[in-house]
From TrEMBL:
This is Sigma-70 family RNA polymerase sigma factor. Transmembrane segments: none annotated. It comes from Fusibacter bizertensis. The keyword Chaperone does not apply. Residues 105-155 form the RNA polymerase sigma factor 70 region 4 type domain. Belongs to the sigma-70 factor family. ECF subfamily. Residues 18-81 form the RNA polymerase sigma-70 region domain.
């Protein structure tokens, strides 16, 4: 029992230390704050259940990111949001600040396949190494590199089309 308590404490410390990075990743999938927090909560629940089943890996970072990514993808499959709901439209209209900083990039990112979007997000927005991404996604490093460069090419094409 002491080992499980130690693992839960380690998980808790890790989650508190990396909560902003986890939120950014979940938000990159949903584009909705409440949904991002729901994904994080579900991911934490899955992680705690895994600890109780003795499924705790050596690298907590890679392990939890994998849970978070899979939970995000599951959430998107279950809750496809193709258009903004009326409440979201109203909420955006009432915002006092305009956020224009990365609109073109966000639009382009939304047009590429989710697997490639995940790789780009982890590499460039979360600053993870390709080797870590390969472990998280259970793929070969060369496959990750190929998908990353293909994704960057797709992003460039999407952004050029918008211009």
């Amino acid at each position: 029992m002491d080992k499980k308590r130690k693992l839960i404490d380690e998980l808790q410390a890790y989650l508190l230390e990396n909560k902003n990075a986890h939120y950014r990743l979940a938000y990159s999938y949903t584009k909705h704050p409440e949904d991002a927090w729901d994904i994080i909560q579900e991911s934490v629940e899955k992680a705690i259940r895994a600890i109780h089943k003795s499924n705790f890996p050596e690298s907590i970072n890679n392990w939890f990111y994998r849970i978070l990514i899979n939970t995000s993808l599951d959430y998107l499959r279950k809750n496809k949001r193709l258009i903004l709901t009326e409440s979201n439209v109203l909420e955006r209209m009432l915002e006092h600040e305009d956020h224009y900083e990365n609109i073109d990039l966000e639009k382009a990112m939304d047009q590429i396949p989710s697997e490639i979007k995940t790789i780009i997000t982890l590499r460039y927005f979360e600053d993870l190494k390709i080797s870590d991404i390969a472990i998280m996604l259970d793929q070969n490093e060369n496959t990750i590199k190929t998908k990353l460069y293909r994704g960057l090419r797709l992003l460039r094409l999407e952004m050029e089309e918008d211009l």
